[in-house]
TrEMBL record, chain A:
Annotated ranges, domain RNA polymerase sigma factor 70 region 4 type: 126-177
Ranges for domain RNA polymerase sigma-70 region: 25-91
One of the Pfam families matching this protein, by short name: Sigma70_r2
Family that this chain belongs to: Belongs to the sigma-70 factor family. ECF subfamily.
Keywords attached to this entry: Sigma factor, Transcription, Transcription regulation
Protein name: RNA polymerase sigma factor
Family matches, as InterPro entries: RNA_pol_sigma-70-like (IPR039425), RNA_pol_sigma-70_dom (IPR014284), RNA_pol_sigma70_r2 (IPR007627), RNA_pol_sigma70_r4_t2 (IPR013249), RNA_pol_sigma_r2 (IPR013325), RNA_pol_sigma_r3/r4-like (IPR013324), WH-like_DNA-bd_sf (IPR036388)
From TrEMBL, chain B:
Keyword Transmembrane on entry: yes
UniProt keyword list: Membrane, Transmembrane, Transmembrane helix
Superkingdom assignment: Bacteria
Lineage: Bacteria, Pseudomonadati, Bacteroidota, Sphingobacteriia, Sphingobacteriales
Designated name of the protein: Transmembrane anti-sigma factor
Amino acid sequence: MQSKLSDIELIEQTLAGNQSAYADLVKRHQRFVFTLAMRFSKSREDAEEIAQDCFIKAYRSLASYNAQAKFSTWLYTIVYNTAMTFLRKKRIATDSIDEEGTFIQIENRESAYDADNVENKSRSFYLNQAIEQLLPDDATIITLFYKGEQSLEEIAQTLGMETNTVKVKLFRARQRLKDKLERNLKHEVKELI
Amino acid sequence: MNPIEEKIWNYIDGTCTPAEQEAIALLIEQDEVYRTKYQEFLQLNQEIAGMELDEPPMGFTYKVMETIRTENARQPLKAAINPRVIWGVSVFFAITIVTLLVFTIANIHIGLSAVDVKINMPAGFKLPKMSNIFSSQVFKWFLVFDVILALFLADSYLRRKKTAKQL
C-alpha cells in the first residue's frame, strides 16, 4: 500500500532518519523512472540499473533538494543526467558495433515481445513499439509531457533547454511518432495480406 | 513546422490564448482540412495519454533500499559524524588549553637578579596555590562536567540548526 503523505512530507521524514519513508517515495516514482530509463536504454536490464542508480543518487543528495521545485522535476533531472552518462559510457564500450548490430538487437527485442503478447497486439502495442523506435530525446519529451504530468516549463528545466525548444521538439517528436506508428501498422497489414 | 498542425497542437495542448483558441475552434468547425487534422491529432493524443508505463522488476524497491542500507553500513565512523561536531569539540579544547596556559603564565613569578619586582598585595589576600587547584578532586569533576555540558549543548544546537534548515 502506498503512503498518503506528500512527497515533501516523505522527504522530511527521510531526512529525519526514517528510511521506510524513502521506500515509499521509491514505490511512488519507480514506474515512471523505470519507463524513462527504458526510453534511453531500450533494455530492461540496463533500465533497471539506471533507475536504481537514480534513486540512490537522489537519496544521497536529498538534503540539497530545494522544496520550491516539484520533487518529480528534480528526480527526472537526475534520471536524464544518469541516463545520458550511461549512454555515453555504453557508446564508448560498444563503439565497434555498427548500425546493423543495433538493428538486430531491436528486432530481437520486438520478436520477444511478439512471442509474449501475440494475443495482445492492439494499437497500444504498436504505439509502444513506435516510441521505442524514436530517438531517446523524443521519447523522453513525449513521456514527460504525457505521463510525467510535467508542463513545458518543467520539461525545459529537467532537460536544461529553453521552453520554446521543448515545444518545437514536442511537435516534431509527435510527428515522428505518428509517422512510425503509421509505417508499422501498414507493414503489419501487408504481412497479414 | 506546418502552421496548421502547429495551431491544432497548440489548441489540443491548451497552450494558446483564449482568442486564438476561439479562432481555431471556428476553423475546425468550418474548414475540412482543419477538422480532419484535428480528429487525427486528437486520436493520437488520446492514445499517447493512455499508454501504460513500464513495470520495474519485482523487488525493485527492496534492491534500492538494500543498496542504501549497505552503503550506510560501509560508511566509516569518521564520515558518519558531522564534521561541524568535530570542529566544535576541537575549538572547545583549544579554548580550554589556551585559557589554562594564560592563567598559568600569569601566575608564574619570575625572579630577575638585576630587577627585583615586588607586588604589594592587599592585606589578607592570598593567591591560590596552583598545585592545590589542579590536584583537587572537585576541579577534575568540574572539568568533566564542563566537557559533557559543552558536548551536549553543541549537539542540541547543531540538531536544531539542521531541523530548521530542512523545514
